[in-house]
């Protein structure tokens, strides 16, 4: 029996639509997925939650969707979870990737098999190739730089996407996510991006990539978005995802295209992405890692 631990975003419903049978849907308290969970649990009750899954006959677990690290309330830890606390705290002290690895290890030690979303639905990872537009020589050069930048970011666990413009890094993804990064370069009156842009505006001077030297937002027209997984990450969870909203944001910001690492980025509703980018002549390249 499969349990789906669903986070936020479009991936959980997209995955659910592809499964022949509905799994047991679970969610971490405080995070509301776009699918209705049968079980909601607190991290302070993780031991009890895992025992409940086993009692229900669950053998496989898939984690899909975004979940931020919660704050553990020591007063809420139950007896079944107490033996796990030291391992959880150690993992959570190692950043997002370390937290994920630690949680996966705990689940495996409890006897569960962890299955990646793209193993359940292989079509979530498109084949390599140019899916929209044309790949100009500058895009190829910028993609090489973008791959190097994301590798550096991944080693410090700081993001999985960046914007490259003619050999220059103009933005790096932070905790706000890819769409918020792109939204900083879209027109302020774009109704598609008003809400995301308002979130980004709250960052102010704390995010250096928001502004050029004179404090004004930089022009991203002609830049590419490069998105790829972190080097060496456990790909059974937290693979980067793009969808139609990312494509709409790229168009609003005037990007020349979107480049994702083949086999490393989940693509939702590719037909919509392709149509959106084709309308403005922007490219969509599923690029093999290390490709020229």
Uncertain segments of ≥5 residues (pLDDT<50)? 189-216
Task: Note the overall shape.
Answer: elongated
Q: What Rg do the Cα atoms give?
A: 20 Å
Task: Report the CATH superfamily of the largest domain.
Answer: LpxI C-terminal catalytic domain
Give the % helix. Answer: 25-40%
Instruction: Please state the average pLDDT score.
Output: 86
Class based on secondary structure composition and strand pairing: alpha/beta
Share of β-strand residues: 15-25%
Please describe the biggest sheet, giving its number of strands, its sense, and whether it closes into a barrel.
Answer: 6 strands, mixed
- In CATH, the topology of the largest domain is named Cytidine Deaminase, domain 2
Question: What number of domains?
Answer: 2
Number of strands: 13
Termini Cα gap: 43 Å
Number of helices: 10
Strand and helix order? EHEEHEHHEHEHEEHHEEHEEHE
CATH architecture grouping of the largest domain: 3-Layer(aba) Sandwich
* Broad CATH class of the largest domain: Alpha Beta
Widest sheet: strand ordering: 6-13-11-9-7-8
């Amino acid at each position: 029996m499969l349990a789906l631990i669903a986070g936020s975003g479009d991936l959980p419903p997209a995955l659910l639509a592809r499964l022949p049978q509905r799994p047991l849907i679970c969610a971490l308290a405080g995070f509301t997925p776009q699918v209705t969970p049968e079980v909601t649990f607190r991290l302070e009750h993780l031991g009890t939650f895992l025992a409940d899954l086993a009692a229900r006959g669950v053998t496989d677990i898939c984690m899909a969707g975004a979940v931020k690290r919660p704050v553990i309330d020591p007063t809420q830890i139950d007896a079944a979870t107490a033996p796990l606390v030291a391992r959880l705290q150690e993992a959570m002290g190692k950043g997002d990737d370390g937290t994920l690895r630690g949680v996966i290890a705990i689940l495996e030690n409890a006897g569960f098999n962890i299955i990646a979303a793209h193993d359940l639905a292989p079509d979530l990872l498109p084949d390599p190739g140019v899916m929209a537009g044309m790949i100009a020589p500058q895009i190829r050069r910028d993609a090489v730089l973008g791959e190097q930048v994301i590798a550096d970011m991944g080693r410090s666990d700081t993001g999985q996407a960046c914007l490259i413009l003619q050999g220059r890094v103009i933005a790096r993804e932070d905790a706000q996510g890819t769409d918020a990064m792109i939204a900083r370069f879209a027109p302020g009156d774009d109704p598609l991006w008003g809400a995301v842009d308002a979130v980004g505006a709250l960052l102010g001077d704390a995010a250096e990539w928001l502004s050029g030297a004179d404090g004004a937002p930089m022009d991203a027209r002609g830049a590419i978005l490069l998105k790829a997984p972190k080097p060496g990450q456990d790909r059974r969870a937290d693979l980067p995802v793009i969808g139609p909203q990312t494509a709409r944001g790229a168009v609003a910001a005037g990007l020349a295209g979107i480049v994702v690492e083949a086999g490393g980025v989940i693509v939702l509703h590719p037909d919509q992405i392709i149509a959106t980018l084709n309308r403005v002549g922007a490219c969509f390249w599923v690029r093999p890692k290390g490709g020229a």
